[in-house]
Structure formats: structure tokens, C-alpha cells
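Hey, quick one: can you model this chain's 3D structure?
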Amino acid sequence: MTGGDGGNSRGGGGNSRDGVAAAAAAPAASTARDRPRGRDDGSRRTRGVVLHVPVVHGSHAVWLGPEKADESRTHRWHVYLRALDTLALDLSHFIDHVEFVLHESFRPPSRVVSTPPYELVEHGWGEFDILVRVHFRCSVERPVEFYHPLKLFPAAPPGAPPGPPAEPTRTPVVAEFYDEIVFQDPTENMLKLLQLTQRQPNTRISLSPLAHYYTDFSGAEGADLKRIEEAQTAVAAETAKKGARYDELCAEQAALNQELSELAAATSAAQAKAAAAAERGSAREGGGGGKAMGGSVDMVLSP
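Sure thing. Here's the predicted structure for all 303 residues.
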């Protein structure tokens, strides 16, 4: 996602009758229009600067079991935004708060988490897309948004036909997605925040209890590049194969066209030969009849 660019929210399915008491409604985001801007207030853009901050948005869902689940509360789930490396990186030096916008059936649907770990816990029965909106400490920068697909049920095995969700299990269902916040031409203040030491020495780390479920994305970029290279190699090989087959088909077509041309020429020659023979036959038949008539005229009858 790109810093400074907004997005459109979209709804999903799923309901819940209860919310987390500590969750608060989202405050209105401040904008650059709320205060005067000058050339020395840090709001100037640093042209030509592009910074990438890797993040992960995810969810963790647990089935409550037949003894605790009911129609509206089948699962207890978390949704969160975290740094790529939670032990080495902290996002709070430039993130002011994270807003999670749930399905409209939740009350309130918008929840704010202001301190790390940036995660929200809820109960529900259905899967839907959650809007994760990140607000920055430099409010001149517009929030960025991610859509996270909440997963409550285990994924179907590869190749399985489409159908209803799998039966719930006691095993937690974890869905995590790697993404990046891209700051293009950030403000001077934002650039300073991003360049701050992300964690001071001996700072106590506030880890989520879900940390041992986190996906290791440390080799994600290399793995993605490898898959891209493999896909490019496969496409090139398939293209060469199709090209060779195309050349074979063109050669076969040329040979067939040559055969058809020769056959047409032979057919024309045969037709011409047959027509000449028929003409000669007709001429012979016409000449023989004249001679018979001449003989009858020259015949002398005796008394």
C-alpha cells in the first residue's frame, strides 16, 4: 500500500452480538487543512525519496467447541497488524493508531488500537473482509488501508472441489499476508519519524501471545523472486515449444498447399486430355458417315 493514498471500504459477511468493552469508536482523522502550513513546519515534501516499510496483517481464529459455541459465537478471533520482525522492529515510532473496521453487524464496527501490539479480539460466526486503516504520527500523511480476509475455517486441500466450509477444529486457523507501506515523497516530519531508532536499547518488548503462530516472512522476497524466475523460465520454455509446433504446422500447411496445387494441375491436365480425346472421337464419327453416303450415290444398279 502507498502512503498518502486512501481506499474504498467494502462489506463482508458475518455477525456478532458482543464486542470488546475496551474497544473505542474511531476518532476523526486530522488533516493538513486543520492548521496553517509553512515552509519550516516540516510539512514540505522530500521529493525523490521513497521508503518501504514491510508489515504483516493477519488473523487468528479458534473454535469455541460445542460446549461454548452458539449460533452467533462459534469462534474467538484476533485481527492484527504487526512488523515483519516483531523482535527487532517496532512500528509505534511512526504509527499513531490502527483502526479496524469490522462488518456493520458489529457494534461499534470501527475499533481503534493505539499501542502495540496492534490487535483486536472479537467473537463471531462468519468470515468477512476487515478494513485495516493505519494512521501516522505525522497527520499530514493520509492513512493507508489494507483489506484482511478473516478466516475461521481450515482451508480446503489443494485440488478439492468448491463446497461449504470445512468442519471447525480445535487447531487455530491463522491467515497472514505480507505487504508494504510505501512512502513516496514523505513530508520532512514523516521522514524524521521513519529514520528514528526503532527501539532503544534495553526497551521492554511487548509481544503478543499470538507471536508463536506468526509466519516467518524473512525469505519472502527471495522466495517470490525465485517463483517469478521459475515462472518466467516455464513461460519461455512453453513459448519456445509452441513456436516450434507453430513452425511445424506452417511447414505442414505449405506441404499440403503444394500437394493441392499439384493435384489441381494434374486434374486440369487430365480434364484437358479427356476433352481433347472426346473432340477427336466426335470428329472421327462425323467423317465416317460422309463416306457411306458417297458410296451409296456412286452405286450402279443392274437391270
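One thing worth noting: The two ends are 131 Å apart (CA to CA).
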